[in-house]
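Sharing a chain and its predicted structure for anyone who wants a worked example. Both blocks are below, sequence first, tokens second.
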Amino acid sequence: MPLKEIRMPKFPECWESCGNCAQGTVFVLEVLVAPGDRIACDDTILILETGKVALDIPSPWAGTVQEVRIAEGDTVSEGGVLMTLLEP
């Protein structure tokens, strides 16, 4: 059972061209999972706030959450590790 790192996905390309959604700091509004939780692929694991919009971030894999490395209020950057997941 391999351990996977769930990383912050690439910000949408439209943020670079328009910028309206991404004005201000991108931070974690709500963490929806905790260590020990079993999640499915595409389950929402956290919600980001960009100053203009809230974005649901889905899990790219199914498995059991091992460690959550972010908390509500944290700022996040593209590619940063959000949590680790043990695949079934």
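Comments welcome. The mean pLDDT is 85.
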